[in-house]
Amino acid sequence: MMMELLIKNGFVYDPINGIDGERVDIAIKDGRIVERVDERRAEIIDASGMIVMPGGVDLHSHIVGGKVNSGRLLRPEDHRKDYEVKTKVTRSGVGYSIPSTFTTGYRYSRMGYTTVMDPAIAPLKARHAHEELNDTPMIDKGFYPLLGDWWFVLEFIRDGKIEECAAHVAWLISSVKGYAIKLVNPGGLEAWGFGRNVDSIDDPVPYFNITPRDIIRGLCKVNQLLNLPHAIHIHTNNLGKPGNYTTTLDTMKCVEDLAIDDKPIAHVTHCQFNAFKGVNWKTLASGAPEIADYVNKHKHVTLDMGQIIFTDTTTMTADGPFQYILYKLTGNKWVNSDVETETSAGIVPIRYRRASYANAVQWSIGLELALLIKDTWKVYLTTDHPNGGPFTEYPRVIAWLMSRIARERTMKRLNKRAVAKMTLPSIDREYTFYEIAIATRAGPARSLGLKNKGHLGVGADADVAIYDVNPKEVNPSRQYKLVRRAFRRAAYTIKSGEVVVKNGEIVKSMMGDTIWCNIHVMPSLAEDVAKGLKKRFREYWTVEYDNYPIPEKYLSISYPMEIKAKV
Length: 567
Hints:
Elements lengths: L4 E4 L2 E4 L4 E5 L2 E4 L2 E3 L8 E4 L4 E4 L1 E3 L7 H9 L1 H6 L1 E2 L8 E2 L6 H10 L2 E9 L4 H9 L5 E6 L5 H8 L3 H15 L5 E3 L3 H5 L19 H15 L5 E4 L9 H9 L12 E3 L7 E2 L7 E2 L1 H10 L3 E4 L7 E6 L2 H11 L4 E5 L3 E9 L5 H16 L6 E2 L13 H9 L1 H8 L4 H6 L11 H16 L15 E4 L12 H9 L3 E4 L2 E5 L2 E2 L7 E7 L2 H18 L17 E7 L3
Parallel strand pairs: 1-6, 2-7, 8-11, 11-12, 13-14, 14-15, 15-18, 18-22, 27-28
Antiparallel strand pairs: 1-4, 2-3, 4-5, 7-23, 9-10, 16-17, 19-21, 20-21, 23-24, 24-25, 25-26
Helix pairs in contact: 5-6, 5-8, 6-8, 6-18, 10-12, 13-14, 13-17
């Protein structure tokens, strides 16, 4: 039997249940939150003077897959920069911006995170991605298959066969054990196969006679037909280009009429990289106010920050055309690839510098998005790990969000011309602990449709983080360093009802679940689509149709979400 736990006297922040810093005892039994336990038998954790939150949920972090492995090979210098020492409980490991699998799990757990989703896996490489997920301890996890430039998806959308496209996507996600629909530079990756790109959501995609607008709207309709728990996850066109904020606005507007019951239907990811004004790098400015104004007025879209950190890191994305541009801008090492008929990818190391005008503007944009969007349920904390910086720097971002003083001290060290053009100095808003709990836990969990995550209500997974900071005695605005330190090393992390971290150290290593969607469509529709696929697999793939699906037994701990589609 699993041990019973009782967390007593802590200041609880549980936004899904409306608990804002109240003293509430949390009872745990058999890996779940329960109403009560027998105090005589339960292990007692005295959280007096500490904050208690649900375990952290990261909905966008590149932790496994082909790009991550290529990045590890490309950057041996990244291995030397940071490492994990073997203990009686943990394995050794390396990597600063691209840590090894075990190291990734340990570092998330130390910060009180318990669920992480990788946002971009080529379906053809999903088998190896699962091998890495099986090797990543401490956290529940999953991934989003890349679908925005799949030949068959493009053909179905071109021909107006949305139900058939839905059946195909259902087969694909269920086969590779993925979780959500991911689009990266829709149409642009297919164009990249011919050395081209697209410049707007209305540019034609070569040889398919459709546009990115068609792809975005088509997959949004597919997502709704399939009843998937998460909205379409969009890396918009023109990422990283001055002036791209208009493309982001166009992307959000193009699905506005598809919204039903105020439910978010599109998630714009790492929005900082897509919120640039200006016509070139010298005139770069923030488009965050315009994007925030749109999000404040509409309910059908959410986004995450993609905050940059001033450090050396590794950019990696399926957006091959952008990575080529970045390679030309920086002259750094570069990896670029096409994955058969599915997607592309690129990797380029980068250093974000305080003295750089462009980097300073980028830094301000991410924070401006988070601070100007009034409803914290619409914007979540990410660095697009490792693109904007390692996930281990989330506590630094938390400090910037909670403290105007922390922001001002950082701005004093930045490029002066950039600071003069920022909106950030005029923003007084500071996040509360309640809002941090939304941005790092409740919001991402709700966005992902993970009903047992991100809260501490009865029946929820017993994933809990306790931080040694007293909200009644510590002023986050002035004492932001104490807050940053507390969020960097949790006093306790509890995963599935077991204490795995104590005082920032791993005390128990355990494996989490791999979460995926098993989607059920009408058998007749599924059979019709399958017939056409088998022939095309022989023509276009190196893998036969029957060998493409990944057996569930291949996952070390499988957690399928059974989804009944509308088709």
